[in-house]
Amino acid sequence: MPLEPAHRRFLPAGSALRCAGGFLLLCLLAALGAAEGAEREAAERLSPYFGTKCRYETLHPHLLREPLALGPPQSGFPLPPASCTPLQLNAVIRHGTRFPTGGQIKKLAHLHRLLGQRNGSCAASEALAGWSLWYREDMDGQLAERGRHDMSTLARRLAARFPGLLAPRRRFAFVSSHKARCLNSSDAFRDGLRQALGGQQPPELGNDPTMLGDIKINDTLMRFFDLCEKFVRDVDNNDEAMHEVDAFKVGPEMKKVVERIANNLCLPVDQLNADLVQVAFFTCSFELAIKNISSPWCSIFSEEDALVLEYLNDLKQYWKRAYGYEINSRASCILFQDIFRNLDQAVLESKNSKPISSPVILQFGHAETLQPLLALMGYFKDKEPLKANNYHRHMNRKFRSGRIVPYASNLVFVLYHCDQVQSPKEEYKVQLLLNEKLLEFPWSKKTVISYANLKNRYKDVLQKCHFAEVCNIPQNTTNTVVL
User: Which top class of enzyme applies to this chain (predicted)?
Assistant: First the structure.
């Protein structure tokens, strides 16, 4: 889908004065076209820096043109069908594109009122004051229609990649967080599967060719962070845990951004802060992701601003969901162990020449589900922690949340049975896909590993990480917070 123009356009200052005679209309049209082009360029220029608010297509631009295209072939994927057969696909999927939260909408409404109340002439403020605030607080993080599209097309692409697994007569296990955006995402994914397989179903299966079971709500797996008492106490509900984020908000890099945006909007700098500037930036991202338009909010930000705001978002993800505190990732071991229990079951059934009882397992959660899991596995870890005072040293960091957990992000474990007569330990192999791209294992440049070797690499987590021991707070302890 091509990027549409925003619903309001503004003629560049002085352009009409340069037009004369019968060429006035053509000149006006050319000026409007130039303005539209500039807005499009602004949104696309900023799009890589939206962090967890990134649309999936930022990673895969070809999907804007062809939503079902699989992209260029990847060397070594899938494993050669002559010797390897996929046995199980186990996926953890973030919900699709959503609306802003109620809190974000309130902040945006406050900023919008500030722009409407200011005195004097200011083109940028007047343009944004005239922008229609169409978000309602009851939207509060709900799945957008674009989010259903994300899920439906992802399902159809996965069916095309793994036709032997996502096929008629196969049973699919669906697991979801209780949140509506996740339940609706799983429902949209099911619709995509029906479309992908609808022409292949045996007559006796009627309208349900995939033999889809019910969607099971399991917050223990998909929202483990809510159930981990130590995480909730020490990180989620502890203001001190975000001290690096708070320090960056008032640090020199963010202070310059706030000053620049205040100047762009002709507002006193004391009326703005990092949170209001961030919500304006996110509004640019929401308009692009939800409506596929370039919002007028995009025009007030430079790429330099975007880099700073991306780091602010990444700091929060790092300290609250990833490597900042060990409890963040260790709490996800309950999900990690469940994935391996299912892989173990498939290996056992294969060895006993039995049908695989759960060939496809699809679990729908949040960025907060995926990010800790990837940290537990050792992915995207920089040598130096992300802090408020080392922004410039992290310009080329690995940890960029927009490239890891955008909307519709997905981590897929693929288990294969391979013909390895001379090396029985290599009979079962695993590949990982992150956002439909092969993922190298953290300790090597390889993209395939024997299942036995993979389990050995993570034996500490699989054998010694017990959710209750990691997360429970003994009844007789004080409320001392340890970070």
Answer: hydrolase
Residue 243 DSSP SS3: helix
Cα 415 to the center of its chain, rounded Å: 24
- pLDDT class for 171, splitting at 50, 70, 90? confident
Give the C-alpha distances (Å, rounded to integers) separating 246 from 158, 234, 316, 322, 401. 40, 16, 9, 17, 18
Same-domain check for residues 267 and 312:
yes
Q: Provide, rounded to the nearest whole percent, the portion of the chain with pLDDT above 90.
A: 77
Instruction: Provide the pLDDT confidence category of residue 227 given band limits of 50, 70 and 90.
Output: very high
Tell me, yes or no, if the pTM score tops 0.70: yes
- Domain shared by 254 and 340, yes or no: no
| Active-site hit among 95, 112, 366, 394 | 95
**Same domain for 218 and 346:** yes
Q: Could you tell me if 179 and 202 lie in one domain?
A: yes
pLDDT tens column, 406-457 = 999 999 999 999 987 645 667 999 999 999 999 999 999 899 999 999 999 9
Q: Which residue, 305, 326, 347, sits at the end of a domain?
A: 326
- CA triple 52-58-59, angle to 5 deg: 90
Catalytic residue at 95? yes
What does the alpha-carbon distance between residue 47 and residue 53 come to, in Å, rounded to a whole number?
Answer: 9
262 falls within a domain: yes
Residues 106, 107, 110, 115, Cα dihedral to 10°: -130
